[in-house]
Amino acid sequence: MSVPGGIVILDFGSQFTQLIARRIREQEVFSAVLPCSASLDDVRAYHPSGIVLSGGPNSVYDPAAPVCDPRVLELGLPVLGICYGMQWITHTLGGKVTPAKRREYGPAVIDLSSENGQAGSVLFQGLPRKLNIWNSHGDHVQSLPAGFQVTGRTENALAAAEDTARRIYAVEFHPEVRHTDRGTDILRNFVFGICAAKPNWSGQAFIHETVEAIQRRVGARPALCALSGGVDSAVAAVLVHRALGPRLTNVFVDTGLLRKDEFRTTLELLRDRMHLKVIGVDASQRFLAALKGVTDPEEKRRRIGRGFIEVFADEARKLGEIGFLVQGTLYPDVIESVSVRGPSQTIKTHHNVGGLPADLPFQLVEPLRDLFKDEVRRIGRELGLPEEMLTKHPFPGPGLAVRMLGEFTPEGLDTLRDADAIVVEEIRRAGLYEKVWQAFAVLLPVRSVGVMGDERHYGWTIAVRVVESEDAMTADWSRLPADVLERISTRIVNEVRGVTRVVYDISSKPPSTIEWE
Q1: Is 275 a catalytic residue?
Q2: What's 509's DSSP letter?
Q3: Which of 32, 130, 292, 457 could make an SS bond with 450 (beta carbons 3.0 to 4.6 A apart)?
Q4: pLDDT at 178
Q5: 83 included as an active-site residue
Q6: φ and ψ at 415, to 5 degrees?
Q7: Domain 203-390 identical in fold to domain 404-504
Q8: What is the distance between the alpha carbons of residues 336 and 402, in angstroms, rounded to a whole number?
Q9: What is the DSSP letter of 190?
């Protein structure tokens, strides 16, 4: 949908582009992400009050570096360049960008002292002179184009600049990530102080416009919804149900890869409390047979993606001709799987994005594709979903298959499922379940010596992963109390046959991902 007076973001391929859109939507201002190659007519069609140029993984001086139409700088609209966006502005307008002698990845401190004796930049209005910021770049702006003034520096580089006459602003750090102090304030200053945008965006507006868009696209035809049992697909199902009513049939598949007792308890929740029309399909043997002996995580995801489509195609044939499949795909799934808006890098294939077969027998309906998990939860609350569903921890579509590293075996699956149940039980018992983003177990292809009852045992290793996050784009490991970790470890070793060692994962994202595979 398009709301006049919002912000258009031109995507040069950053993993964080949608975070910019999300921070702007948090201000109740509409934002749209377009590829950097979008035409001026495409940009003008949104009637924006300002433009943001995102970061990206390339160097502006490379022959194949992504570019946008330089006339976006001549539209008379305020422009904010972030990281690569700043470097592209500099390069395009006659400044100089060079490889850094000392690259900047991670935290830094910016000094916002004015270098021209004038008042500080409107972009940093109300902020302290020094801020902790987050960088991710290997190039630096060596010299600015004519008309630009430096408005901030780090110890190593020029970090912020502006040309107020042309209303062009630029920063070489990432204000959209939570690691940058007051980053939301910087974006707010741009959106309201510089662009004079008006609050025009809300969850109810999203629901209304999405329902109308689904009705226009699907018309009077029926559709299937792929229910995974998690919050994403549940919110998608309720949203599409508003649009299609009884023409939507939900299919919840037991892949044999779900958490302990999850198929039964979730099916009851979907039918009895959410009043959805749900078909429960036990396809566990199909999936387990397809995965047996597979070691490569990408191959696991591809086989699971194909398996889901085969099940949905079977159910569609039973119901008659159905041409639409609803999925609860979110933006973090998309950005890690495929390049969608700009030239971004593939991190890993998600079963419901890059793992889908080329000959898909359905048209996909993905109403949440541009949203983050916490935004989806807010939409879910406005739709009236039960808190029990909305507070569920994220669970990968491929299920426990991608939490069993190395060769997939039915025996390993049983070990992992039992260990995972203990992790979740103890996190709940400690009152931490709704305070952390995710808590789960991973079965490692590592064996070590243990001693049980004075006997030598050569058993498996379980890694425990508990993280805190807002949107899954970044995450930090949770500092669990030592007694909670002790109970988890003791119970797993005592209660799960074949496990002799438990380790705790203290990696953050980035550089690690939340899931191991």
Answers
A1: no
A2: B
A3: 457
A4: 82
A5: yes
A6: -60, -45
A7: no
A8: 15
A9: I
Q: Is the CB of residue 165 less than 8 Å from the CB of residue 172?
A: no
- For residue 511, say if its preceding peptide bond is cis, omega within 30 degrees of 0: yes
Continuous segment of H or E residues that includes residue 452: strand 438-452
- The whole-angstrom separation of Cα 23 and Cα 18 is 9
The domain ranges of the chain are 7-194, 203-390, 404-504
- What angle, rounded to 10 degrees, do the helices at 231-244 and 203-218 form? 60
CA 234 to CA 215: how far, in whole Å? 19
Q: Which of 83, 140, 162, 350 is catalytic?
A: 83
**pTM assigned to the model:** 0.71
Name the phi and psi angles at 452, rounded to 5.
-135, 120
Average pLDDT, the chain: 88
Residue 83 exposure: Cα atoms within 13 Å on the Cβ side: 29
CATH code of 203-390, in short, is: 3.40.50.620
CATH 3.30.420.10 assigned to 7-194: no
- Provide the 10 A C-beta neighbour count for residue 40: 13
**Angstrom distances, CA of residue 140 to CA of 46, 172, 249:** 32, 8, 53
Pairing of strands 149-153, 158-163: antiparallel
Tokens of 42: 């495409």
Choose among 350, 334, 354: nearest CA to 342. 334
Does 339 have pLDDT greater than 80? no
Instruction: Name the DSSP letter for residue 404.
Output: B
Catalytic residue among 91, 137, 140, 174: 174
- On the question of pLDDT at 103 being above 70, the answer is no
Cis peptide upstream of residue 398 (ω within 30 degrees of 0): no
State yes or no: pLDDT of 454 exceeds 70.
no
- The rounded radius of gyration (Å) of the Cα atoms in the chain is 25
CB 32 within 8 A of CB 3: no
CA distance 125 to 106: 24
pLDDT digits (tens, 9 = 90+) for 130-167: 999 887 767 888 899 999 999 998 887 888 999 999 99
- How many CA atoms lie within 13 Å of 249's alpha carbon, on the beta-carbon side? 21
176 included as an active-site residue = yes
Task: Give the CATH class of 404-504.
Answer: alpha beta
